[in-house]
Amino acid sequence: MEVLRPTLIRIGGRVYRKNLIQEQSYQNAEEEDFCAGPGDCTDEPCDAFIVEETERGFQCAVDVPSPLYKYIIGKRGETRKRLEMETRTSISIPKPGVEGEIVIRGQQRGGVISARTRIDVLVESLRKKQPFTHFLSFALNQPVIQEKFLQFKEERLESCFHQSDYGVSSSLFQNPSKLHLTIGTLVLLNGQEIQKACELLQKCKEDFADKITGGRSLAVEVAGIEYMNDDPAMVDVLYAKVHTKDGSNKLQMLADTLMERFVTSGLMVKEWDRVKLHATVMNTLFRKDPNAEEQNNTTAGKSDFKERESFDGRNILKLFGNFHFGELQLNSVHLSQRFSTDSSGYYTSSGQLTFS
Predict the structure, then answer these.
(1) DSSP labels, 192-204
(2) What DSSP line would sit under 116-183, residue for residue?
(3) Are 112 and 104 within 8 A, CB to CB?
(4) Which fold has domain 134-354?
(5) Residue 152: pLDDT above 80?
(6) pLDDT digits (tens, 9 = 90+) for 190-230
(7) How far apart are CA 271 and CA 322, in angstroms?
(8) Between the CA of residue 216 and those of 137, 250, 251, 331, what are the distances in Å?
(9) What is the dotted CATH code of the domain comprising 7-127?
């Protein structure tokens, strides 16, 4: 069935079929040969990018973040050599750590297009395997919410001593200064990509954010506890539910439309049909790393999941299932930087959309 229904990769308005190939280990990725072979994509000429005619033939330039250069070069340069040989081109790559353009040159226009297409598909595939660097978020760390969260934590730990719940400890709880609602995660590998995301945020404000919110902040309530798996006795994540006070779908609509716009732009990978409006309050990832974030669907995320030690959440759900964390006004969306902290204790913001 995988052959009949191959994965589709969207790049710059084009759609490619990705043939099924054997997965490779990415632990030593910089030494592996990740060549997009002849069967990996269709080298159809198109006008989605510019191919210039020169005195010696044709050339095309493509922006690729410097952290991905090593994959295009491959082990001992084998990936680049194979691409050059199969497309009869020469591929110039900037030095490691230097942001710039990869330039493809060849005597035949079709060869240059073929090499460019294969590099595009290779980069898109590799990008999906990178850990996310940023995420779109609503900050939920206003003082009233933090205070109620600390109350929840204190009461939960106190009851835990009497109930002897398996696996529950203070290390599982979220940092109250970083309480948030995640819209989606992004892999932004250089300053240009961060700038592109910031510009898209402002475009979203103009196109639909102000219309959805009416240019006013959204009154929301954080209340109720839910879990993310099928067995409450073996839980990895507990989260607080978030909803608008007036019962409208404005918050859901804003989150979903933002996700769709960023997915369409290629900056975000769509994981769910709708954004789950929730705020993580307990997570087994915090047990080993207090600064850990919820993983997106990456190889790293799967690895972390296997190492988790679940806890028994039945008593928490019974005693605190309707816990009220408070109400607040949401008026902005942040492009938050993973593994960072600003002066307020929240994540450092690389960009922001304000709708009131």
Answers:
(1) HHHHHHHHHHHHH
(2) HHHHHHHHHHHHTTSPP-EEEEEE---HHHHHHHHHHHHHHHHHHHHHT-TT--GGGBPPGGG-EEEE
(3) yes
(4) Cyclic Phosphodiesterase; Chain: A, (3.90.1140)
(5) yes
(6) 999 999 999 999 999 999 999 999 999 999 999 999 998 88
(7) 28
(8) 18, 11, 12, 7
(9) 3.30.1370.10
Rounded CA separation 178/14 (Å): 38
pLDDT digits (tens, 9 = 90+) for 325-348: 999 999 999 999 999 999 999 999
Is the CA virtual torsion 142, 147, 152, 154 positive or negative? positive
- Reading the block at residue 184, the tokens are 């989606």
Q: Which residue has the tokens 């879990």?
A: 227
- Is the fold of 7-127 the same as that of 134-354? no
Kindly report the pTM of this predicted structure.
0.80
Residue 76 contacts by C-beta under 8 Å, 6 or more apart in sequence?
none
Using CA atoms, how far apart are residues 336 and 143, in angstroms rounded to an integer?
19
Amino acid 114 reads S
Closest alpha carbon to 282 in 212, 235, 326: 235
Q: Is the dihedral of CA 264, 65, 27, 132 positive or negative?
A: negative
> Where are the chain's structural domains?
7-127, 134-354
Q: What is the pLDDT of residues 29-40, one digit of tens each?
A: 444 555 444 444
Q: From its phi and psi, is residue 339 left (phi > 0), alpha (psi between -120 and 50) or beta?
A: left
Q: At what angle do helices 250-265 and 191-204 cross, to 10 degrees?
A: 140
Cα–Cα distance for residue pair 78/90, rounded to 1 Å: 13
